[in-house]
Design a protein that fits this description.
The relative contact order is 0.05. About 65% of the residues lie in helices and about 0% in strands. The chain is built from 19 helices and 2 strands. A hairpin with a 5-residue loop joins β1 and β2. It has a two-stranded antiparallel ribbon. The protein starts with 17 loop residues before the first strand and ends with a helix. The longest helix is centred in the last third of the chain and has 15 residues. α2 runs antiparallel to α3 and α18 packs antiparallel against α19. The protein is mainly α.
Length: about 375
Amino acid sequence: MQKTIFKLVILVTLTSCSYFHEENTVHSCQNLEHATIPVLTNCAQQDNAVAQYELGKRYLNGIDTEKNLEIGMKWVQAAAKQNHAEAQTTLGYGYAKGLGVPLDPTQAFKWTLSAAELGNTDAMTNLSNYYLQGVGVEPNAKQSFEWVLKAAELGNHSAQANLSKAYYLGVGVDANFDKAIMWAKKSAENGNLVAMGQLGAYYTDKQDYTNGAFWTKKAAELGQAHAQANLGYLYIHGLGVSKSTAEGMKWLNLSVEQNDPHGLFNLATIYAEGKIVPQDDAKAYQYYLQAATLNYAQAQNNLGIWLLNGRYVARNERDGLILITLAAEQGVPEAMMTLGKIYQNGWFSIPANPEQSAYWFNQAKKYQSK
């Protein structure tokens, strides 16, 4: 799932306090967004939450001062403790990623929930992801949906893209293609590249290649890596666009330059099959490995099969089994079937395990019936 884009830099509403200039002239702490570091520091030390947050942002992003995540988060936290919603959102993100503060999912959830309850739509969007992924809280798809719906209805474009995906996949709500399209368009029409790419993928999945190519190309030309990978596929197969291997490979390589796992996987498969370009196992292995390292499940499955069979590299049953299991745990039915077969009869150093075989065959049937 396309995950939402978290923001460290968030615009704030300005308030006022007092500070002393070097010449001891008294000034009002106004227009702090453009204030100097000494001015912000003076105001922040007087417990002005806006100054604290603005100063924290400067240190977090290295603006007008040397970048320092720890100092930045110290000031952000000071503002957060004064119920500054943007600061709480940023602090929650910091705890979720371990940026300037220790990695702490519980604290990430706590501060993000507080900011969301104060009405911050970025926090609502992040909170939706935390409920979906189980960050500091038990996974709850329904709660995830409710928070992303609230943020989307308040106009958050990233939330609108996430809500579209929830409707498309039926996560926390019944699947609804029309609502998926509606929310993706709302977001895309406001310039959200993820939503543009989603529209392209939705239409393509429904075999509406004209609309699929239109939105995919729009997102790809604006630099959205996943859309570039999809556009490469459309050109290679002539779906909604004139068939062109050269154009397809161009877009795939552009996505790979951005380390997009989908593009890496597609390019690896092209080189592995050798139908469109000459077969090249070295390149295929390299791209599968890169995508698998990025936790792309299909790449993990294919690379695991290569290791089990000793294709291009020496046979390694242990690592192959680990990779295929990772793919299966992410819901790849082919990986589940492979595990079922491996445990049914055993494979070189991997012993047969009837219980595991039955489990994975059963899991595959469940996923295939969805």
